[in-house]
Amino acid sequence: MSEADFLLSEHDIAATNVCPAFEESLARGVSEAEVEAATGWTRAQLETPDAFVSGASTYRHMELMLAKPNYGAFVVAAAKRHTLSSLGVVGLACKTVATIGEAMQCHQRYQHLTNRTASYATEVVEGQFWLRETREDPSLGSQLISEYTLLIALQLLRDGTAKSLPAIRLQSRRARVPPEQREAVEGFAGTTLELGCPQAAVALDASVLAAPVASADGELAAYFRAVLERASPPAEAKALSRQVALAIRDLLPTGTPSAEAVAKRLGFGRRTLQRHLADEGAGFGELVESTRKALARGYLADPALSLTEIGYLLGYVEQASFFRAFRRWYGTTPAAYREGERRA
């Protein structure tokens, strides 16, 4: 796997997570060719065991469907296609624990194995169980995915308990939602959709945490826990420079990231981060440069991205700066490089 592949795909989202939305798109008359043109997905790719896709491609898929009629009905129907099994081995583990509270703990602990496009936090406040999502990308597609993710969470909780669980609160990052979409989402959730919130979040009665999981199985739970532990090495076993590269990737669309911003994201102080990088023989500035270089090659392979969009994703305020950097890296212009790869 190339560094571009690692930065663009491996640490985003397991293909099993996007299959329900892909299938619902086709059920609503969108062709596989149209989905592929917008996202790069193919059925063969999504059905490959252990395949991953980029988070950006999931945003483009939602934007594609938003432009079609009856988006609200689509997103609800796609959410209803999800079962705990659609989360792969993490979901299977959640299916076998004793209570919903244990299932939520299992999901939070191992979520990084199947979905790294967002982070989730849970808390109980005044008798309400809150699930909050943090997603850095401010784009419309990202906001749509945030809403969709909450509907999936509700669907999975209902799947786990075999009960209808109405939400108490449902919060969206979107500032405006057309009436058709609002009606569909609120009908599914059982509560009013609150708009313009800093995070996407859903709240249910806290008693849900004690609810038994309908398919609990102690022996299978122990088996899946062992599988997940083997697949999830401790944080100290991971190369810090690769964690830093991923943090840089996520922050680049807002401009050139600072060492302070990346350190805060990873839970370090700036000096501590730089000291640990030095122990690995890496420098922060060098990692920003190498990350941009690898991402540029990967982005140019996506025909849906214009050169202007690629410059933005790489954190360049001016296109001229992107072009100069690219010529320094590859000895040619981005357009010439893309054309050469296309002909190869």
Outline the structure in words.
This protein has 344 residues and is of the alpha+beta class. The chain folds into two domains: 229 residues, Alpha-Beta Complex (H-NOX domain); 108 residues, Arc Repressor Mutant, subunit A. The chain is built from 18 helices and seven strands. The strands form two sheets. Strands 3-4-7-5-6 form a five-stranded mixed β-sheet. The protein has a two-stranded antiparallel sheet with strand order 1-2.
What is the β-strand count? 7
Q: Number of domains in the coordinates?
A: 2
Order of helices and strands: HEHHHEHHHHEEHEHEEHHHHHHHH
Shape: globular
Domain HTH araC/xylS-type: 242-340
GO molecular function, one term: DNA-binding transcription factor activity
Pfam families: Arabinose_bd, HTH_18
Organism: Plesiocystis pacifica SIR-1
Summarize the structure in short.
It contains 18 helices and seven strands.
Search tags:
Arc Repressor Mutant, subunit A; transcription cis-regulatory region binding; 7 strands; Homeodomain-like_sf; 344 residues; transcription; alpha+beta; H-NOX domain; 5-stranded mixed sheet; DNA-binding transcription factor activity
Architecture blueprint of SSEs:
Elements: H1 3-10, E1 13-14, H2 15-27, H3 32-39, H4 43-46, E2 52-53, H5 55-66, H6 71-80, H7 88-96, H8 100-110, E3 119-125, E4 128-134, H9 140-161, E5 169-171, H10 179-189, E6 193-194, E7 200-205, H11 218-231, H12 240-251, H13 259-266, H14 270-279, H15 284-300, H16 307-313, H17 319-330, H18 334-343
Helix pairs in contact: 1-15, 2-6, 5-9, 6-9, 6-10, 7-8, 7-11, 12-13, 12-15, 13-14
